[in-house]
Amino acid sequence: MARTKVKAWKSETPSLAGILWKLGTLGITDAIAVTMIMVLVAQELWLATAVSIVVLLVVNWIYLRKGGLPAKYLAPGVLFLIVFQVYVLLFSGYTAFTNYGSAHNGDKALAVQTIKNAAYRTLDGEDYTIALVKSDSTGARGFLMTSNADGQVYVGEDNKPKVLIPEGSYTLSPLCADKYDEDIENCAHAAESATGYTTVKPESLSELEKRKYSSLRVEIDPNDPTIGIKSSDFTIALPVQDTLQYDAEADTFTALTNDDYGTFMAGDVFKPASDGYFRLNGDIDSQKLDGGWRVEVGLANFEKIFTDVQLREPLVKVITWTFMFAFLTVLTTFILGLLIAFLFNHEKLKGKRIYRAVMILPYAFPGFLSAYVWVGLLNRENGFVNTVLLGQTPGNEGNFPWLLEENPARLAVLLVNLWLGFPYMFLITTGALQSIPSELNEAAEIDGASAWQNFRLIKLPLLLISIAPLLIASFAYNFNNFTIIYLLTKGGPNDSGITDYDVGGTDILITFVYKIAFSGTGQNYGLASAFSILIFLVIATISLISFRRTKKLEDIV
Amino acid sequence: MKQTTRKVVGLIAALGVVGAGVSIGTPASAASTLTVWADKGTIDTIKSRVTAWDNANAEYTVQLVEQDFGLVRDKLKTAVPKGQGPDILAGAAHDWIGNLVAANVLLPIDANLPNNFKDDFVPGALQAMKYNGKYYGVPGWTENIAILRNVKKAPKPVKSVNDIKDGELGVNYSATTSDPYHLYPFQSMFKAPIFTTDSQGDWTNTVGMGGTNGANFAKWLKLKGTKFFGPPANAKILCDFLNPINKTKKTGLIKYWVTGAWNINAIENGAGACKTGLKIGSGYAIDPFPTGPTGIKAQQFLGIRGYLMVASGPGNTTNVTAAVDLMRFMSSEATQFSLYDNFNKTPANKAALNRAKDNPVIAGFANAANTVPMPNSPAMDAAWTIWGKAQTRIIQGKEAKPDVAWATMVKTLQATINKTK
Amino acid sequence: MAQKKFNIFRWFLRTGWRHLVGLVVCMYAIFPILYILSTSLYPNNDINDTTALFAEISPANYIELFAQDTRPFGRWYLNTVYIGVFTALGSVFLSALAAFAFSRLRFRGRRGGLLSLILMQMFPSILGLVAIFGLMSDIGQVFPQIGLNTQAGLVLVYMGGALGAGTYLMYGFFNTVPKEIDEAATIDGASHARIFFTIILRLVAPILAVQMLLSYIGVTSDFVLASILLTDPNQLTLATGLQQFISDPYSKDWSMFAAGAVLSALPSLVLFLFLQKYITSGLTGGAVKG
Q: Distance between terminal CA atoms of chain C?
């Protein structure tokens, strides 16, 4: 059985033109790649630079060396494949071992930032309308503050107490301090400039300057230096007390005050816990701060799949239906597609092209759109199918419940999928039929074979060689045919009983997993990814076995 | 030559993608752009006011980006950690807040709201924007449901739910996840609140709809069934509500419709196959909910649609200054009155609401309101699916023992909430 | 007379039944499309209203479709054609290259490679959305021209899926092209590139055409990937844009949707009719003669 048909391809093109074209295209590719690498270098992305250089070198090696023909044909596609598919696959694989999800939505830096964003509280008391100023004498940044309580004007510099400015040393803005105050005539006016200070417009500041101004903190209570005012929008400043302090070195949050909501007391220390939260003393059972990040959780997601009692019953049902759905879809679309392909492979048939054009219409329509149309067509009370095709009374609640009950909904899904899928099968079987050399047909006819014999003994086996892999692919595709199920029924009708999981009568695995990942209670990408891996293993095994069989088919030729 | 030409055409086409991308792709310039995400309905509503702010603030350009109402939260959670989120999420339902805060995508704006600002709103509206003691946005408009009555078919408001006969009620609930929002007034007739409340009247995370009250509601749901509530996903409520009764064709039977201000436009102008609308007063009226079977007054959720401040991802800065300014502009009396005036949105701003009180629709919904703010905690987010599923199954008669099913639901929900603590 | 009856019967056996089956299947294929066409021509229709097909015909929906300023339908149209054409060209070229290698060359890891390609396609990639978004976001930080919210970026992502989706299909068809043809050419002194571009590709030209059409239709149908990668209203594709007309539960606009749907299906339709000619005149002649 050793493969003896290894061919002696000429390894290089002898023509000068060929070489020139090759070098030309390779040159253009290299030029683009080098430009990109230069951009990467300029942004100091060293890892990306290194990877790009390696890829570039490998690509050049592949095309410039003698021999290694397969690589020359495979390289372009494989490059795209690695970037956009292999990476995604690995990412999903990794995610399955993490708690990535709604409440652990990102890295730790994001969580720390979230906590810091909320690590203050505003106090009752006077707030101020402010203008940004710079001292003419020292150059220090400061706020020109107009109290919204009594209209007094102060100036405040960083970490210093506010200083009262006497009337006459400042000018009031002609505009209302609160520009959304409807009472234009009587509204309060805030100081816009003061002697000894230059007013700075926020929009004229650089990012760095903005940051310096927004970190400015002025003490307003002579008795309590922890109370200050800050402003992040440079128009209003409220008395604000910091509640938590982040120590970047120790990676801990320390409470400065008691929390109004009882989450922490002054002096509490929150440390990163293993579940991706800052928890009191890092203890997994104690209080946490809102703001989680993604951590690895080992096999926990897989464990849940196999041990969660709530999951078991719906899961068995979903798996069974997934197989039925994929198999029946392939079977029905293939039979109908093949039937029509043969029908129209008849030379003398009149109007063939018109038929063909009509039948291909479902394919020319974007699939997602067809699904929406079918939802309307299959409406129980007023849908076209019930009222016109089946002649039921419009508006009658007793009409056939296409999408509303489990078995009718399953039938509907299969019918719609047949509608969507048979033109594809028609196309590929037609394509395959036409690629069967006509000499074979003629030979068969000369031998006096009947049409049926011709079909069964000659065309079908030949057809299957090219079609069988497609049937497997079609099975795998429909196994994961998210769009049709989700758009038609969202997996419903909801007959799953009362469980935490959103499962319905037409849910296949992928829609079920999608719901876990993207809808309902706390999105759980981790669990969904674990599911994906298991689905992948199942479908891969099936395909593998089928693939072995096509190998036999191929060897017949 | 011909064949090599073809080869090159192929390769150039492939490479051309990169080249064309360079010329066609428009890199986003972030510096002075404020990005607002909103659903289509919200964009139509707020567009002219946002443009007004835009024109008055030359240094900023506001970009309104349409997002699917149902998917925008998922998208936000994906985008923000990558620094690709918007500055503001407009038209957001306030019950999203808890879940979004837990996902690290919102930024508190307490430090940017002057104290006097906090008195500008109707009770509960600004509180709805508050989660764990922090404000994450400002209110835009309020929504509550009421009983809309076809005056010609039912001249007088209905007093008790017992007086509504089978087929006379229209209520939206879906076949898949039900709609506890529209069914809540009926549930409240049994004193089975979604969560318990603490001493200050704030919602807790303890499910409050269990026990005898919940069981009674469940039994009542089954008793009434689809005969009373109609089929799920009923697309013809509007027509049946608008059209006169036709007993032989069994159409036009609906006298009362449980819905909110968002359907007023369709009722007054007609839509789809029912072209003739009804006018308020002579055609339809907005009534409070009837009392329950045992005389208990019904409550409905107060929903706030608001403007939420989105946090920026690492390395990106949000235009907090401008964003807060725009948000305050959108919550001001002038804007909210304008949204009422042009789009019938009930103002959350007190002053604007007072100016709008003469409007019979606004007055009708205000008069019908016996509201509790809809909880905005992640626990609430966890509740919708399973809660709704239980209701739908019971209404459809799929649960032989509705009280047992209801208790199972309550237990499962509580377990889910506890898990995420 | 008897003669004639017999003929009709024979005619039915030979071709008549084909017409019968053809008509039935045509009805099945076309009625949803007639329905949407009818909806698109009927002003202010709701998809749930049953009215007779084509009860009223008016171009109002089509006119309004192009008049909406927040939903630039014309732009979406161009975007989709641009993305579709480049994706179709690029991915068919990539997968033809790979299929040639798998079908005609024998090398270590061939079976394994082919198998991996197919298996990779079977990974439920819907979850990859999060990963792809992150990847494109990162790319966009460095090369904004091909990052998020660019059509070029989307084309690249689609082409990433080309190898898996197309290679297997084309591999199957390449296998049906008799190997003797290229063996003969080799003996005549043709290089591998020459054989690939001038003999094999020409022989499978109908299949390439079909493949491109499929690829184009796939692009116009995709809205999951496109909706997460494109956000600017001016950058959207037809699928993501049209979806907006019916996604808001309170303001579904079926008429606009239907009109947009009809228009967006047109290119695929024209493309098919054009390619149909190509397919039928395809392989029958010269294979072995060449």
A: 51
One-letter amino acid of C200? I
Chain C residues closer than 8 Å to A377 by CB? 32, 35
- Rounded CA gap, B75 and B138, in Å? 21
| Chain position carrying tokens 């017409």 | C19
Extents of the domains making up chain A:
16-95, 120-242, 306-556
Contact B68 C227 (CB under 8 A): yes
Task: Give the predicted TM-score (pTM) of the model.
Answer: 0.81
| Residues carrying CATH 1.10.3720.10, chain C | 67-280
Domain ranges of chain B: 33-143+303-372, 146-301+374-419
| CATH for the stretch B146-301+374-419 | 3.40.190.10
Kindly report the three-state secondary structure assignment for every residue of A366-396: CHHHHHHHHHHHCCCCCCHHHHHHCCCCCCC
pLDDT digit string (tens) for chain B, length 421 residues = 344 334 433 433 443 333 333 333 333 444 478 899 998 889 989 999 999 999 988 888 898 988 888 788 888 888 888 888 899 999 999 989 988 988 889 999 888 888 778 888 988 899 889 888 889 999 999 999 999 999 999 999 999 999 999 989 999 876 655 578 999 999 999 999 999 998 877 888 899 999 999 999 999 999 999 899 987 767 678 888 998 888 877 778 899 999 998 888 888 887 766 778 899 999 999 999 999 999 999 999 999 999 999 987 554 556 787 888 899 999 999 999 999 998 889 999 999 999 998 899 999 998 998 988 899 888 887 788 788 888 988 998 888 999 999 999 999 899 888 876 5
Contact status of B83 with chain A (Cβ, < 8 Å) = no
Q: From the CA of B340, how many Å to the nearest CA of chain C?
A: 18
**Beta-carbon separation of B74 and A122 below 8 A:** no
Assign 3-class secondary structure to A407-444.
Answer: HHHHHHHHHHHHHHHHHHHHHHHHHHHHHCCHHHHHHH
DSSP helix/strand/coil, C143: coil
Sign of CA dihedral C125, C129, C134, C136: positive
DSSP A84: I
CATH 1.10.3720.10 assigned to domain C67-280? The reply is yes
Instruction: Let me know if the fold of B33-143+303-372 is the same as that of B146-301+374-419.
Output: yes
Domain B33-143+303-372 classified CATH 3.40.190.10?
Answer: yes
Q: Which SS3 state, helix, strand or coil, does residue C99 take?
A: helix
Helix (H, G, I), strand (E, B) or coil at B336: helix
Inter-chain residue contact A80 with C156, CB threshold 8 Å:
yes
Out of 1.10.3720.10, 1.10.520.10, 1.20.1260.10, 1.10.150.120, which CATH number does the structure's domain A306-556 have? 1.10.3720.10
Q: What is the ipTM of this complex?
A: 0.80
Check B27 against C46: CB less than 8 A apart: no
**Residue A281 and residue B301: Cα distance in Å, rounded?**
39
